[in-house]
Design goal:
239 residues; disordered C terminus
Length: 239
């Protein structure tokens, strides 16, 4: 009798609590797991859900790969350059996921909940993260050339030495973030919020900083400022 009761209690606990993705609604958990299983087939033991684990672990995994990327590029060309995602993760909850070094080129993460996600050295070339919640995320060394981070919340995020050439950071929230050594050549930071942001040794040649607010930001080292700063607001002249 006692054993039967234990089973009755344990099954829903494991299914709905310990087996769910971090932050994912209970009802949507099965759909998310199915989507990830389908989209990431062949990744071996990368996905970890077991007891006391409630986050996605796919460090150094090839999630996109060359074949899907080539197919997406052809599709984009046929549509006149319109964005086509390699994998659709819009609105997903992947908080605290371990995606270090993962291949996520061209993925769609619009409005995704990815607070605290570890994307160190990950490949996100051309990815779309519009309005994504990336507070406290680790993007150190990540490759994001041509990525869209428009209106994304990157407060407190780490972007040391990140490659953001040509990225769209229009109205991005970067308060308190660290962009030390980041490459932002040609990036669009129009009306971005950079209060308290570490911009030491950042490269901004050709970047657009129209209407940027960067009070109390730190401009030191080899900071390069040959760019459009129309209506930008700074406490001090960058050095």
């Amino acid at each position: 009798m006692i054993a039967a009761l234990c089973v009755i209690v344990a099954v829903p606990w494991l299914s709905l609590w310990e087996g769910r993705w971090a932050g994912e609604n209970y009802i949507g958990r099965t759909d998310l797991a199915a989507d990830l299983t389908r989209d990431m087939a062949g990744l071996g033991n990368g996905v970890v859900l077991g007891l006391f684990k409630d986050r996605l672990i796919l460090s150094n995994e090839i999630i996109v790969g060359e074949k899907p990327l080539a197919e997406v590029k052809k599709e984009m060309a046929s549509r006149g350059g319109d964005f086509v995602p390699t994998i659709l993760f819009d609105d997903r909850d992947l908080q605290s996921a371990d995606l270090r070094g993962a291949d996520l080129r061209g993925v769609a993460l619009d409005r995704a909940h990815v607070q605290g996600v570890d994307l160190e050295d990950a490949r996100l070339d051309g990815a779309r993260l519009t309005e994504a919640e990336l507070q406290g995320a680790n993007l150190a060394g990540a490759q994001l050339p041509g990525a869209s981070l428009s209106q994304a919340d990157l407060q407190g995020a780490i972007l040391w030495n990140a490659r953001l050439q040509g990225a769209n950071l229009v109205q991005a929230h970067l308060q308190g973030a660290s962009l030390a050594g980041a490459q932002l050549q040609g990036a669009d930071l129009t009306r971005a919020l950079l209060q308290g942001t570490d911009l030491s040794d950042v490269q901004l040649q050709g970047a657009a900083l129209r209407g940027v607010q960067a009070d109390d930001s730190e401009f030191v080292g080899d900071f390069v400022f040959r760019t459009d700063i129309t209506e930008a607001k700074f406490d001090e002249t960058p050095i």
